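Ticket #4471: complex job returned nothing on first submit. Input attached below:
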Amino acid sequence: MEALSINDVKPVAIDDATAPGLAQHKTAIAGLFKRRRVRVKELLAAGLSTVGHTVTVKGWAKTLREAGAGAFAFLEINDGSCFTGLQVVVSKDTPGFEAVMNSGGTGASFCVVGNVVESPAKGQLIEIKATEVTVYGDVADPSTYALSKKRHTLEHLREHAHLRPRSNIHSAAMRVRNAMAQATHSFFNERGFLYIHTPLITASDCEGAGEMFAVTTLFNHVKDGNVPKTADGKAIDYSKDFFGKPSFLTVSGQLNVETHCCALSDCYTFGPTFRAENSNTARHLAEFWMIEPEIAFADLSDDIDLAEDYLKYCAQYALDNCAEDLAFFDKNVEQGLLKRLQTTIESPFVRLSYTEAIELINKPENLKKGKFEKKPVWGDDLGSEHERFITEQIYKKPVVLYNYPKEIKAFYMRLNDDGKTVAAADVLVPKIGEIIGGSQREERLSVLETRIKEATGHDPAEYGWYCDLRRYGTVPHAGFGCGFERLVRFVTGIENIRDVIPFPRWPSNASF
Amino acid sequence: MEALSINDVKPVAIDDATAPGLAQHKTAIAGLFKRRRVRVKELLAAGLSTVGHTVTVKGWAKTLREAGAGAFAFLEINDGSCFTGLQVVVSKDTPGFEAVMNSGGTGASFCVVGNVVESPAKGQLIEIKATEVTVYGDVADPSTYALSKKRHTLEHLREHAHLRPRSNIHSAAMRVRNAMAQATHSFFNERGFLYIHTPLITASDCEGAGEMFAVTTLFNHVKDGNVPKTADGKAIDYSKDFFGKPSFLTVSGQLNVETHCCALSDCYTFGPTFRAENSNTARHLAEFWMIEPEIAFADLSDDIDLAEDYLKYCAQYALDNCAEDLAFFDKNVEQGLLKRLQTTIESPFVRLSYTEAIELINKPENLKKGKFEKKPVWGDDLGSEHERFITEQIYKKPVVLYNYPKEIKAFYMRLNDDGKTVAAADVLVPKIGEIIGGSQREERLSVLETRIKEATGHDPAEYGWYCDLRRYGTVPHAGFGCGFERLVRFVTGIENIRDVIPFPRWPSNASF
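Support reply: We reran it on our side without changes. The output follows.
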């Protein structure tokens, strides 16, 4: 049989299996796939127990420096599995020494085989005494390398989004982002919620939660700068488009996930959503991820309970799984981050109606302290300044506001018995402001139809499939939406939303 | 403090906590969120141990029929948590009996409080003797209800995609789909792969894996059917578009995820991808989900090992977690499904080079047996008929083909030493054909640049950011893509790809 070529590197001695604590996977399930290396994370975690073993480590140089008057070199290697790098000592007589010294240093990639020894240096238990080093890839011209050793601004990193995972801050943010995604799936899966993939492209007219991007193939049929037009020449001929009518990128999976909730009970979506708003700020993205659970046979208090559990679970998951990265953020990005997360976990969220919140902010001492640009008036949406004042200044912990005036909320939120408010709730947290928005859904067909007319001006018939859920076996249900990037900002303390997503999209920016 | 209104249903007696086996969550973590009901899944699983307890169950009627000359009714209720419904006996003197009888039956929704009793009927251990039934929502006019009790065609269900989660086949498919998503995250998370959200919208020119959808806001600026044009009037003025240049929906996250793999080591994406191909078939969707792992410091054999482990893990996960749904599919959709999955898990995948496969199919006995429309010739892509013949007729289990002619594969696949083939591998499985396609990536800058010119005709400079990964610390790496809907088809036996995704999109169809 024709052999599969082995292109990785010449076979090297690895005795991972003999070093205690160096299991390849957390899972017990046997498999074929094995890394032909030890990850830095497992090696550092196993610590002194690995001393005396031969290991193979692969990664990129964070730093490389000559020492002992050229007798040896210190190579700090990182493979992205954890924040800390691994110190490798390469002496002049080690095979590969010269190649290492000519590799360009920071950013070059290596395969290191060596012995684990106790480290004489401070701040690290172990280091590697290399017996052989292979350079996979050098940095031929370090002067052109955008991720050189020096400190870079966040703007510079954004401009080199393809290389910024090699920076401390972005790699830590991506590990935390991964942890929050895993936490999200664990949380809902453990509670019996089904993950439902709601559609991204939709020709449905009944969203209206924000400006939408059009999705089209009509630009493939441009003639003299014209897209196909209708017979009278006055409008675009969407019958020639891929879906035969105007189609858009979704702004929320909620209405779609309700269809599955009203049959399969508790569900959630976790996927990308889009806003074509011309917002060039540190708080908005044109493409972002959102988590939207939907609970069957539930009301607003169940919804708030779930939201509080979810945020606490995520904060705890981060503390449990990303301690090293969070320590970096606590030290370099937001002093007090760890304490803030601990407070989130330990204290019950404050629950306050919208009306009570308006009264609270309007107390003279709060108006004085808050120095608001705008005094809040019942009936108006609360500003970000008000929301953050409540959660950061008054309570210093998460606050849930509920029962908002119907005029400032969406048509699908359940009308309360007062006829003036709806069963909606927003969760406000220090540092972010609103992180979650939810509601009980209007399950009464006649009330829903009235609200559609009132709030959207449309004919309820345009919302036919959504109304069908109320026409046939309606049930009380509730849900919320959590902006995933806000969650990552909440857990890392990172200010700019562009720095918590691999490739941010904003007006005039869809590079990479 | 203003009270949160409880809109669910009048308070009912629940003693879930006292019935053994009825824990609300699998997790031990305490929380606020508690269902005010027992799920049918947990109740049936706890079985006879629940006899004598009072429980609250909520769900939709699968069937409702009068019995005993009107003295009582049999209500089969389902809450989507599992395939099987729960039988409820409602006697004439039970509060709510009349409302139940007037509910319209199939599709109506209920809150049932009652005592668990041993069932005298065959095929079920327990049933509920109702003490009170509340109708949440009726089906006022059953004649208009698209999901009435009778059997429906798959076409009919697709036309009512908002209600089809109430059908046996779609609800089972969605539970299996959920399980496969959870399995995917568990598999990669346990192995230390980071979940990376690659972008959906891209202005990058270097994809080219298929026809793309344009993403635009220019339709907001249409005047007399014209989108904004350049000064000479001959072309579309993309400078007025949201991203300032032509932008598209991604066809793959691979190139983007490589950036993070070349810094954080092993990563994966799992997200929607798009094809604007005019394929109106049971095998294609315009929007589908894809899993794309990328392994650092790995070659093609590592890649194939990971793919084999992954598919086996998913098959085992389905057998472990979806036994009831799989039994339904085995009986009603594909006889032999369970055996096929068991074979997948138990036998090593066959590994065969493309060249060997061509020779194999061209053996006279196989040409005779296969009755192919087209005889396979070295250098041509294998047809679906050839792929399925190899995996279904010759080996009757999964087969991995590797080392394909470079002319039929993408520019980024690593050139083998023969100069003619690339280190690519496809995994073929019975029932589906190709389910996974992967490759070792070309990590040598000069070879990559040559291949870009050769295979795409473009200037390598247009692929600048992708080439940078080879310019600065390149490493051997490999990865694959797995169509998620193909995986769900593989595990359920469902033929049409439109039946394994909540809201399928194809030419002229983006409803809901």
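Residues 87 and 122 of chain B are 11 Å apart (CA to CA). Closing as resolved unless it happens again.
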